[in-house]
Each structure stands twice: as structure tokens, then as C-alpha cells.
Amino acid sequence: MTRRCDHCDQPASVHETLIRDGVAQEIHLCADHARAQGFVIPGAGGVTVNISQLLSAAHAAHPTARRSTPRPAKTCASCGMTIAGLQSSGLLGCPDCYRVFEDMLSGLIARAQGGASVHVGRHPEQAACSIDRAALRNRLAKELRDAISREEYERAARLRDRLSTLGTPGADDLDANCDASSQT
Amino acid sequence: MKRSDDLTAMYDSDTPLGDVVLSSRVRLARNISGYPFVNRATPDQLTEVMHRVQVTQIGGAFATGTRWINLASSDETDRTLLFERNLISKHFSEGTHPRCVALSADGCASIMVNEEDHLRAQMFAGGFRLHALVEAMTHLDRSLEKSLDYAYHPRFGYLTACPTNLGTGIRMSVMLHLPALRVLDELEKMRRSAKELKLAVRGVHGEGSDALGELFQISNQVTLGRSEEDLLEEFAGVIVPQIVEYERQARHRMLESDAATATDRAHRALGILRSARLLSLEESYKYLSRVRLGVAVGIIEKISISTINRLLFEVQPAHLTRILTLTPSARSDDRAARASHVRSALE
Questions:
Q1: Fewer C-beta neighbours within 10 Å, C or N terminus of chain B?
Q2: How many whole angstroms separate alpha carbon A106 and alpha carbon A118?
Q3: Handedness of CA B184, B188, B194, B197 (dihedral sign)
Q4: Looking at chain B from residue 49 to 88, which residues have their Cβ under 8 Å from any Cβ of chain A?
Q5: Are the beta carbons of A119 and B154 separated by less than 8 Å?
Q6: Which residues of chain B make contact with A121, given a CB cutoff of 8 A?
Q7: pTM to 2 decimals?
Q8: How far apart are alpha carbons A8 and B254 in whole angstroms?
Q9: What is the pLDDT of residues B231-255, one digit of tens each?
Q10: What is the distance between the alpha carbons of residues B198 and B175, in angstroms, rounded to a whole number?
Q11: What ipTM was predicted for this assembly?
Q12: What backbone phi and psi angles, to 5 degrees, belong to B137?
């Protein structure tokens, strides 16, 4: 069944889960209402994702953005990138930016990447032994629940396969998972 | 070894779906760990990245005969030529920071160093050859990885300056010729379907370019959460054949409903291309598109689709300059040179 927009009778094309004060709230918006709330909707030319706008929306929605006494702006110690810099260029400054701005980036990455937030694919052989297995398992499990709830069964099957290669929780989470790395 | 300006492999669309798929491309984005991304790196750091890549033993298409071009000291016509072949981006061509590009011996692959990411490798082939290109790109990636530490994150995959390229960092695209969908006013339907499937639809020269000659570049937008194999299976196995089928059905309906008009359009276009003394770029794309359709559906014989594919490259300004060995000052009127070249190719 097509889900309708929360604000009108149009079909919803944007589906988001917002966490406000610890409470999860699902929102479903049509293109017009999504645009009005700062979401970027692909134009007639296909899917074009404006990361600058997504970042601005993500920053505005972030709890720290609504504090009456603002904290000092977050800056990446490695490259000096700031939130303002991210918003204006739409580009991260270095690999460490992904860690520094991770809380702000997670939602927009999922929006830009069709709901996905975990890499499923090849990885460098030398990186294979530094993967945090427990964190990866948790991420994949979340993706799997999401895929099932969206009735994307083929994707769910692939995620389940990937999860099964990671073994059972607690077994060797601190150990490098070279076996998982062979999933190329 | 083939000369790098003998681009037969780029023009030859004699493959399944080649009546609609003009060419295939695979692009890979990678960054080297330990350096800021290009937008935050200093000129010295960018120069160091260039040197590190240039001394790397690269395999696959770049195993022998690779030509390195330093963009800062290159000739403008060379840069425009590479842009016209999509081997470099406009942004890369016009930059002022330290950057270079590696060109494979066959002229069908490039590695831009210090584009938006440290490495942007691209491979092209005429027609529908995505599977072979992805295999070749995997080989190239593995060979680079032996010498370069890629920036990688267990959750996000290969890290890129823009989050839209995260994960696999791979983009597959095809250049599609969709004249019948345009004539029947069904392009909008195709665009809507593409949007739902999270595909990007662009013109001949990528983002921001118009759909000259009814040519559309379609690529996967999602790079995270799908393995390279899944992306290939979905894009090359399902999506491209489906769009090709829409176009073929539209061609069939067009011929069934008014064969005389379709025949007239194709032959009239061929007549103009064989007779005109002045041809603008837009005009040549317009008429070459009509002739290509005529050849594809059998209205026009004795001209190959590959010839039209080749002309679609060669009518561009820098190509004309190189082919006709014109100096920029002697190029008083591109339109005359273009018309002359097209006439001789279609005689």
C-alpha cells in the first residue's frame, strides 16, 4: 500500500525516522513537504544529491544546533575542516572527518545512499584485519531489520549472508576478522 | 600497440544492446590514507600524491605504454580533447592545483590524480561491455592497492571526499541513444523510472550538460550497501536491458504508426550531413542522431553504427582541430571544417 504524506494526501516519497528527546518518530513526506522541511528531492534530471543542503538540514536537526548556549563549533583536528566548511563545499576534508562528524553524517549518508549506511563489498586486504567485528555486526543487523521492514527481501538475504560470515557475537570480536574480509 | 588516438574500441558498439547503448564506462574513486582529500590538501601534499601514484607499478590496462600528462604544463587543445572523450572532467581540465592524468595505451582508460578524490580511474568501451569493464577495473584496483594504502573505514567502505561516492566508490554508466522515446514524448516516463531506481540521468558530458543528440548518460547513484557484484547485476543485468527494451518498443511503435515519416527523417538528415557546407555542433548531433536511428532500424543501409559513433566524437571542436591538423588560428570557422569532415566520412 502506498503511504501518504503526513501533511497532505499525496504519496510520500521521503521516509525518515527522527529521534527527538530519545523518542523515535517516523515521518513520511511528499516531495513538496519534504522540500519545505529541508530535504533534497531529486529533480527531473534524475537523482542528484546536494550534499551541502543535506548537511545544512542535518546540522539544523542536530540537538547541539538547538542549544541556547552554543558549544564551540566542531573542527577536524587533522585537516581543520569545520561544519560550516562542510556545508559550503559539500565535501569532507580528510578520512578523519568521517569519524569527527560521524554523528551528523550518518543520517545524510543514509539519505544520499538510498537508506544504506554500511559498506557491503570489497575492501583492501591490509584493512581487513582492523575491522571491528562487533560494531560491524551491529550495523549489519540494523540494516537487516530495516530491509525486512521495507520488504526488501533480496537485500535482506544478502545482509543475512554477510552477517553469517561474521560468526556469533562475543566469539572473537577483538580478533581481526580476516575470514570476513574474503567477501569480495 | 594501438595508437592512443585510434579509438576503435570506443566507437565499436557491435555488442548485444549496441543499437541503443553507445558506450559503457566504469569509474572508481579512491583516496590514499595519510593525506587530506584534494580540497584540503596543500600544493606540496598534492604533488606528493602525484609522485606516489606515478611511481606505482600499475597493472591491467596501464601495464605498458601508459602516458602521463601533467595538466599544469599541458596544451589546451590536448586538455579539451581529453574532456571531449570524457577521459577527464571539466573541473579537472580547468583546475589550477597540481594534478595529472595517466592514459592507457589504447586510449580507453584514464586515471585522474587529484580530481575530487586522489584517484579517479575510468575505463570506457564501445557498446554494452560493463561486465568486462568491471572485471578490468577490479584488476586495476587490486594492482594499485599493492602499492597504495587506501583510505578505508569498516563501516563506510572506501572513503571519498563526497559522501555520495562512499562504499564501493564505483560508478557504472552507459551512454544511451534514446531518439524514439524523445520523438514519442516518453522521455519523462523514463526519467521517472530512473529516479525511482536511484539512477542519475545526464547529458553527453555528465553533470550539467544537455542531452545533445538524444544521448543520455545513465549511472548508478548508490555506491554504499551494495557489493560491486550486486551493483553490476542490478545495473547491467536488469536496469540497462529494461531501458533498452523501452527504446526498442518505442522505435517499433514509431515505425508501425508512421514509417514514411520515420524514413523521411532519417534520409533527410543523411542528405543534410552529406551536403551541408556549414554545420554547427548542435546541428551535427541532431542529424547524426537521426541517421543513427535510421541505421539501427534498417532504414539506412551501407553505413555502420560505429561510423556514426565515431563522428559523434569527431565533430567536437578539439577533435576537429587534431584530425584536420588545424592550428587554432587557422580554425576560422569550425562549422566549415566540421561539415567537410562529416561529408567525407559519409561519402
A1: C
A2: 10
A3: negative
A4: none
A5: yes
A6: 157, 167-168, 226-230
A7: 0.77
A8: 40
A9: 999 999 999 999 999 999 999 999 9
A10: 17
A11: 0.83
A12: -70, -40
